Amino acid sequence: MTEPTPPNSPPRREDFARSEEVTRQQRDQLAAASYPRNLPSASALARRRTVLRWAKWALPATALLLLSSIAIWPEVDRLINANSAALRDMAKVKIESGNLLGATYRGVDEHNRPFMITADSAHQVTSERMDLRTPSADVLSQGDNWMLVRSQKGVYMQHANLLDLTGEVTLYRDDGLMMRSPVADIDLKRGVIASDSWVRAEGPFGVLDAKGYLLSQHDGVAQFRGPGRLILNDDRGSHSQEGKAS
């Protein structure tokens, strides 16, 4: 039987009433069950320091590379699209009896503005000269204004970027100007169009007939050689002026 607890004594749990011998045995068992921690060797510490040193450089470099790729991606996409357009143009080109059918030439002028020449067919005469049939030249001028010049025949000097047009030369400009002449010479690099033959120009201003002209697309200059005739359009009617055009 359990001995009665003396009066006025604090309560005591029997499971905590362990002897010193039992407590020592339990501590020895816990100590035997625990595993000692192995300290890293000097070589392991050196490897860890090397990894940390590389991580300090590799992680920022990787982040910089990702940011750079995001920044240059629009330019990469533009180049991919340009190459795709070039491949599509090449797919349209056919060779027939030494002539290129559906020929397309692209380039940029001295102001880094693009131009494009297309023709129904092109014949390679020399390494420099190409004879074109029904050529058309698309030119982007100052202020991103668009201009198209076409004719029945043409000669394209590739390295000099000169285009000589003959046979019903017609010039269209997005401001409403249209010019017709039998011949015209285009310096695609400088953006200059000239002719020493008669020309008829029509547009919102009226009608102009002259003996020759020079247009500088990038400088915004138009010169006409007389004698010529100018008919102006205004709200009060048409007025004809004759004289030397310049």
UniProtKB/TrEMBL annotation:
Give start-end positions of Basic and acidic residues composition bias.
11-27
Q: Where is the composition biased (Pro residues)?
A: 1-10
Task: State the residue spans of region: Disordered.
Answer: 1-35
Entry's Gene3D superfamilies? Lipopolysaccharide (LPS) transport protein A like domain (2.60.450.10)
Q: Name one Pfam family in it.
A: LptC
**Family annotation (InterPro entries):** LipoPS_assembly_LptC-rel
Protein's recorded name:
LPS export ABC transporter periplasmic protein LptC
UniProt source species: Acetobacter cibinongensis
